[in-house]
Amino acid sequence: MTAAPALTEQAASAGWQARLSLDFAPRAGRTELVRRQQFGPLAVQRPFHPEGAPCHLYVLHPPGGVVGGDSLTLDVQLQAGAHALLTTPGATKFYRSLGPLATVQQQFVVAEGASLEWLPQDNILFPGARLRLDSHFALAPGARLLAWETQALGRPVIAERFTQGQLFSRLQLSRDGQLQLNDCLRIRHEADLNRSAGLAGFPLVATLLATPCGEAEREAVRELLADYPFPAGVTRLQDLLVVRLLSDDNELLQQRMQALWRALRPAVLGCVPCAPRIWAT
Known about the structure:
Layout: E1 17-27, E2 30-39, E3 43-44, E4 55-60, E5 71-78, E6 83-87, E7 92-94, E8 102-110, E9 115-119, E10 123-125, E11 130-139, E12 144-153, E13 166-175, E14 178-187, H1 190-194, E15 204-211, H2 215-224, E16 232-237, E17 240-247, H3 250-269
Parallel strand pairs: 1-5, 4-6, 5-8, 6-9, 7-10, 8-11, 9-12, 10-12, 11-13
Antiparallel strand pairs: 1-2, 3-4, 12-15, 13-14, 15-17, 16-17
Helix pairs in contact: 2-3
Organism: Pseudaeromonas paramecii
Pfam family, one: UreD
Subunit structure: UreD, UreF and UreG form a complex that acts as a GTP-hydrolysis-dependent molecular chaperone, activating the urease apoprotein by helping to assemble the nickel containing metallocenter of UreC. The UreE protein probably delivers the nickel.
């Protein structure tokens, strides 16, 4: 996984152009969705509060898949003291492109004392998909974060390989305006999947971010990964924990990511685990 310049963008034919802006704030003892602006096919279901104060919300993409030329933008802001958990009801599918890129831009701004959990289900890239994915978390001092993303290159459950297509994924995190993480993954052809310095032949890669964390949280994650049968690693960058898992079994990968979330949530957010109900369906 190495830093790389952006993919060369081919002029896109008409595609879905969608933008969703969400703003959360504490109101009367719990977090409420106080502003929602929607354009195009990005939407949310009704917010609910299964554990009291935190707000749970599902982000939807009604077309069911993303094709070349589609552009999706998600802008999420948490005001001071808010706590929101966002997930998706299913995997996001990126279909084969005849040339144009699909682009997804996600910006999360978390104010002082606020807590964000961004826990989408996996991105599935069909062979021939061309995707640029940019995610940026901007945290104020005292903000807390648990977030993950999973890229599935092809569908290993049916022995489908990502034999053609492109992916450029950039994951950034800044704290108080200072860049703390700039993580890039570039896949230009099938050979990039097999490089030992890349994905080493594994079609699934997941990244989890947790902050603030200390050495105790890093050791707890290492223990949880001790029996994981695929390559995995955990790194602490100051108070930011970065966990990476490779796999060829998506069900096992998702189970382990959820186990990490359950273990880290009390330490990072001070809350007992309360899994989104959609995970059980």
